[in-house]
Fold these 4 entries.
Entry 1:
Amino acid sequence: MSNLQEASDLENKVQISARRFEESPFIERTDCPEMVRGVYAGRYFPIFLGENYLEKYWCLRQKALIFDVPEKPVEISGPDAVPFLEKVLSRKVASMTEGRGYYAIACTPQGGVFMDGVVFRLGENRFWYVQADGPFEVWLMAHSGGFEVTISDPNSRVLQIQGPASMDIMHAASGGAIDETMKYFRSGYFDLGGQRLYVSRTGFTNELGFEIYSDGCGTDHLALWDHLMACGKAHGMEFSSTRALTIRRIEGGILGNLTDMTPDMTPFEAGLAPFIDMNKGDFIGRDALLGKDQRSCLFGLTCKTETPAAGSVVMEGDQVVGRITAGVPSPTLGLGVGYVHFIAPGEWLGRTLSMRLPDGNSHACQIVEVPFFDREKAIVRGIDRSIPVRPTV
């Protein structure tokens, strides 16, 4: 199962029972006749609202957007929370301080990528893992035997405020409590319009940004929405579907679980070796990863004449050497950009190859590193606070 969110998905729709998946508590503020929804982690979310995605993209890059996103926090608590997470995650968590977040991967016993997400330490024996798409809560329960832990759903819905104005917006929304001292991948509880909520300085765009986590039925979601929108109005913040977010996350080199990486890929193949701590002790999948080739098979691809699309293949002469996992038009670069997963590791960077689309047409493409720009991540870290200029056509 993939979650592509490419342009063609807006026409690839079927009717489904509205009770089959979890509705957004913000739907009264976001619904419109043009809305097209996707399903991710068992939750509905808007992938299109009939908006001009290019205008929303530049609002994201120059001001700020608010997104109703479907990523799902799962709570892991109890006396054995730390040793349990050491077993199921490939990154060491015992040394985490309270309020710290880590990008962390869970592997299959065969060494494939099962889940990626961000783990936060909320207390000594209390953690949240904010998961991507996939049945991670069930996976955790299945591996919890012998550990004194509780796996629970805090019923938290997540909003993301992303873009260069996000710091000023969150400063206003928190009555000044959130400011420049809150660093990237840090988190904590803050009063937002009279409601105490968890906030992290993270996101899915590689822009400066924050995520706000509701507290289940303890949160007045509509009041929260109205408060954030009122604080964002003076800074030009708008609501958007995830269309602009998807473009920016691919530009920013962020991978999508079950789309760009799948259980039949090792994290090494996906270019995620820095997040696999082979020296931390045993974890699920470690034995299978011992001795594996640690070279990446996943790279960026650019094309001047066409947008890469899932289902396309990359050719070296007459031989298929890779497949496209996702692609979007990059408004900043003026190119089509996407990810290519090569069948085998090799000296692919810098090569000019051929991309054959599902319609049979072929286009020259270049193999590049990701992110496609801002490789030092100065934007998301708040080091580069310049406002990008929209290219003229």
Entry 2:
Amino acid sequence: MTVSPTLQKYLDQGVSYDLIAHAPTMSSTRTAEACHVSGEALAKAVVLRRDGGYMMAVLPASHHLHLSALKSQLGHKVDLASEDEIERLFGDCERGAIPALGECYGLDVIVDNSIDPHRDIYVEAGDHATLIRMDGEEFARLTAKAWRGHFSTHD
């Protein structure tokens, strides 16, 4: 099990969490299945390009991002970042396994309202074989400075 060093340093500052090892997967939906976790409880990260910088949208793995809804809520031009851009931003993470805790990477974050703070939340740890489980209230505390909005729909 490997937690990205940036995320590990962030979590070591008083965050209560558990690590869950799983068979390697290449999508958040498959990760949820491998860990027997609801796709509603697995928070996935989508990295966005905006105003010459980057930000992160966080939504359940079982949902699809609606970029047009996100653009209207943020009030400016927003596009999906490329895999190469994401790799540069998250150099200590495996491609496609970025944690849904963008604050520790210096990113602004918007969290979809469908993330339920009354249940455990799971996030990628930075590799394709480890999940982090934390109480939903802990996740809410870690994302307290994030914007909130509705920009996804369930599969």
Entry 3:
Amino acid sequence: MTEAGITVSWSMKPSDWLDIAAIIQRAGVPAMVAFARDTKASARQPVRYATFFLRGGWRGLPPVSAVPPPRPASAAGKRPHCGHPDCDPITRTREIEDGRGLRNLHPCPDCHPTAKGQAA
């Protein structure tokens, strides 16, 4: 919440801490921060205590969805093709030979920087 610009006191009763732990498990921290940010923006007085958010709506937050958000259909956010001769420009995969001399397809480590060192 501090990163979102919300600085409040977290002095609470033990039962409030148990409620917060359950809300984190059910709804997740991002939903709690978004609720606090929106609530703080519309509050008539400065918010000084986290219990304001707990009593004001955190308990009613819906469960986090198990379905991941849809991926954008366009390639607008896609990195440009790396240009490596072994990298397929469509699938962005490379045939990489392992220690036994077998070639397998793997995500290109240049086109997929988060896939470095991971098998496909």
Entry 4:
Amino acid sequence: MSSSSTPPRRGEKSEAAPVKPPMRDALVAAAFQLFLERGYEQTTVDDIVTLAGVGRRSFFRYFPSKEDVVFPDHERCLADVTAFLAAEDGTAEPVRRVCEAVRLVLRMYTENPGFSVQRYRLTKQVPGLRAYELSVVWRYERAFADHLRARLAGQPDGSLRADVIAAAVAAAHNNALRSWLRADGEGDVHTEMDHALGYVQSTLGPAPDGGPAEEPKDVVVVVSRRGAPLWRVVQQIEATLEK
């Protein structure tokens, strides 16, 4: 038996074999390595599985398409968002609840800033990936709208408000997130997100006292000739308000 196979003696440290990443993570790492080296369009699924050291069946067990390997965590995140909204007992303020739900998406991005920035750069370069990303955003927006429709059912323009709020929350999230990604993941994205979502809540949420939004006030326009005495103008205004 060779010395290299001799077990270490007591007190001696053995060199631990490097831990291999899970197959799913290995496929993502291989894919992005090739995307950076060769380009997205020039990389095939066969190239990815060869570098990862697995077969094609293993790839499609985790990812339906090459596009999906670029966005590996969105299915899990969308499930988390849907479950978070479904767990609401009907007492939370609807706009605030959806704003809290979209923070789960932000958390997914901030868990691995380097990967998120890398994906952002890649997506900007490949039109097909930008279109795919829009479809992902639409799925989140639909989840928000479905929840809001149920919460606002029976209210005036409930369905319309649900769609508008859902779109605004998605847009505010993307505005803060992309600003952070353009800065290479530097800066306080949570403060930026607070500002963006706070704007949505102050604009589309309930009035500060918790009651319904204030009804728009009537506007009175009075036409008077130049040089008319002030008492005459006041008299005209009073007469108009009494109508």
